[in-house]
Specification:
409 residues, alpha/beta, 13 strands, eight-stranded mixed sheet
């Protein structure tokens, strides 16, 4: 990351004071700390509503429960920097609030940045306990080192010293099911002492989409120009069958957490679309996945709840801000900055993803998927954009001045 203009200890001190004041202003209106809250950041592998794909028709809806749930929760679309891959980049942004768009296009933060940091920042540091669950092999994207550097207490994966207790797959699938992933998550919820952050990364809907399921696919028969031949049609129907199983697993999980007398907030998001659609002629659609944020019954009764429907399109960096808003939880100076970014700036993403040739660091898009140029921002928006960029530089490539100012506490 190139050093931003005016980067210095004095500049970062001014930024700290500005957002400490903003945090204090926000916190006067909020009554909750993290205390005994449980937050689950649930990355659902390759989850994206197939109904948004142009010229694709399905015989039946594979995700009726999630579709219905999204009507009554904070929900919308997430703009992904990946298509058919790039899971760890979305995970990094969701866990840190730091944006891929400000980094060099060649950087994979997990493997090339976090592994070199002794005290990398992640939202998990706000909680008494932090657990990562990935019902697969643990070495990919250097997750073992990454989670340790993020301050996680344990990382559960196949073969780890913290075993994946529940293990089952569906039919011929090579991956453990989403039902399995959520069953292990429930165990960690029940075991929580005080506040707990759980990062869940599922595997069920990972490619290949080839002969995984015995039957039921005929219910989701695919047609249209998006499935140009029988091979593509077969992949789409296999993938959509997996979405059906995800829909059932999420329904069971929501029912389970609603029965638990602890305040639980569940962030569900797809990391990217599967790389199987023939041609949509619409780059934006290929980068839009689905998200919702659900607070269980206990949380709604004891924390209060607000539903935010105005955020039709968000970046992965926005999820923790939405959790704080929904649960009426107090902010740190850093998360106060992120709330202003959510409220006042267009979605920030990479230039490659958005097809931008502008000379600014990142690309920005509005809810309609239209590019917004830096020069079109207001003066206050430009100031906020530059503050965000300076903070990210200080926390990753700079001198980490903000750490000694308790910016993230």
């Amino acid at each position: 990351m190139d050093e931003p203009e005016n980067y210095s200890k004095e500049t970062m001190t001014q930024i700290y004071k500005k957002y400490a004041q903003e945090s204090a202003r926000i916190n006067r209106r909020r009554r909750n700390d993290w205390d005994d809250q449980i937050v689950i950041m649930g990355l659902s592998e390759s989850f994206a509503d197939p109904y948004r794909i142009p010229e694709l028709t399905l015989a039946n809806d594979p995700i009726p429960y999630i579709r219905s749930l999204m009507k009554t929760t904070t929900s919308g679309l997430m703009y992904s920097t990946g298509y058919g891959g790039g899971t760890a980049n979305m995970e990094y942004m969701a866990l840190t609030g730091l944006n891929q768009g400000f980094f060099s296009a060649a950087l994979t933060p997990y493997t090339q940045l976090v592994t070199t940091q002794n005290q990398a920042y992640a939202f998990s540091r706000l909680f008494n306990q932090a657990v990562a669950i990935h019902p697969y092999i643990g070495v990919y994207y250097s997750r073992q080192t990454v989670y340790q550097n993020f301050g996680f207490n344990k990382f559960m994966y196949l073969g780890s010293k913290y075993p994946i207790k529940h293990q089952s797959s569906i039919d011929r699938s090579a991956y453990l099911s989403d039902e399995t992933a959520y069953a292990n998550t429930v165990d960690e919820i029940l075991d929580a002492q005080g506040s707990k952050f759980i990062n869940l990364v599922t595997m069920q809907n990972h490619l290949p989409y080839d002969n995984n399921y015995y039957n039921g696919k005929e219910k989701y028969a695919a047609s249209g120009n998006a499935v140009a031949n029988d091979y593509v049609r077969g992949m789409v129907e296999e993938y959509v069958m997996g979405l059906h199983h995800t829909d059932e697993a999420v329904k069971n999980f929501i029912e389970k957490i609603d029965s638990i007398n602890k305040p639980i907030t569940f962030v569900f998001y797809g990391d990217h679309l599967p790389g199987i659609y023939w041609d949509t002629n619409n780059n934006n659609i290929l980068h839009q996945t689905d998200y919702f944020i659900y607070s269980n019954r206990y949380a709604r009764r004891h924390l209060g709840r607000r539903i935010y429907k105005q955020y039709d399109l968000v970046a992965p960096t926005d999820f923790m801000s939405l959790v704080q808003k929904q649960t009426l939880t107090k902010t740190t100076p850093y998360s106060a900055l992120l709330e202003k970014v959510l409220d006042e700036l267009p979605v920030i993403t990479t230039k490659a993803t958005a097809g931008s040739k502008e000379e600014s660091d990142a690309a920005m898009i509005n809810d309609n998927g239209e590019l917004i140029k830096y020069d079109d921002l207001s003066s206050s928006q430009k100031e906020l954009y530059n503050d965000y960029k300076l903070v990210q530089y200080d926390m990753t490539a700079g001198n980490n001045y903000l750490e000694n100012m308790n910016f993230t506490r």
